[in-house]
Design a protein that fits this description.
There is one protein chain. The chain has 340 residues and is mainly alpha-helical. It has a single domain, classed as Farnesyl Diphosphate Synthase. Helices cover 73% and strands 1% of the residues. It has 16 helices and two strands. A two-stranded antiparallel ribbon has the order 1-2. Helix 1 crosses helix 3 and helix 1 crosses helix 4. The chain is globular and about 60 Å long.
Amino acid sequence: MSLSHTPVTTTSLDSASVLQRLHALIGDDLLATNRIIVAQLDSQVEMIPTLGSHLINSGGKRLRPILTLLVARLFGYAGEGHALLAAVVEFIHTATLLHDDVVDKSERRRGKLTANAIWGSKAPVLVGDFLFSRSFQMLVAYGDLKVLRILADACAVISEGEVMQLVVSNDLATTESQYLEVVSRKTATLFAAAARLGAVVSGRSEAEESALGHYGEYLGRAFQVIDDALDYSSSDEALGKTVGDDFQEGKITLPVIHAYQQGSAEERQFWRRCLEDKEYQAGDLQRAIALIHARGSLQYALQAARRMAEEAKEQLADFPASPEREALILLADFSVSRSF
């Protein structure tokens, strides 16, 4: 690693163009990854490729596989293993989404009907299980025990995060620290693993692998905090799902924690009635959004996410300047400037 400590700066972004810029840099790698995804979705059980393709082809940002591909290219990797590992990462992510949508009873994702809204809850759970299983078949065929360990550990931690989120749902005693632990496990773990894989496939040092893993961790945290804030600030069309879903499901997110802690006794009673007692009335979502704005809770969440994004970029300080490094910086900026 270079000791030049090239300054990491914040870029002014048009969020809608960021993914195009990333795709332009690693477009061939993404095409190779997509070919592997399509091939590995193949099954004699028709429901599996049909349902799996529904979510995979529904316009996701592909941030996790992009991370693996970008980090590999950061180190000048010229093989083909990074595309397979990126496909595995996307399979694992897709499996978690299928399961999440069933648990949350979500009806829309990325602007389209969820798999469970179309096929019911049983098929998405089972196809999610298939995607997990196929992922580990691919990893066994790849034959690298370290890679297998990274993703096996990540899947275990993600599952723990899902359970932790279930435990703290509808509980306004949840602290910011507990919330961030759920975010770290449920979301940031796969970001971290995806970035580490790019370093591992390139044969880089433990120090470089660790730096990229920490980059992915902070990036994932920032991304999820903004995702939670958007539920109270974006539009259905921009967000790709129904605004207020988190509120209706009783999810305790950072804007809610802050608004509740800063609120009056009457405001706290409102939050308890809605999120703990699940007694919703007409206009409750609008009032929740108004309270979150009035208490500065969106700004509080944004500031927290910005700190995380800056921490992510600091992990890149020792790497030499390159288009790939700039793209990783761009990803960190995008995580806190996006509207979808």
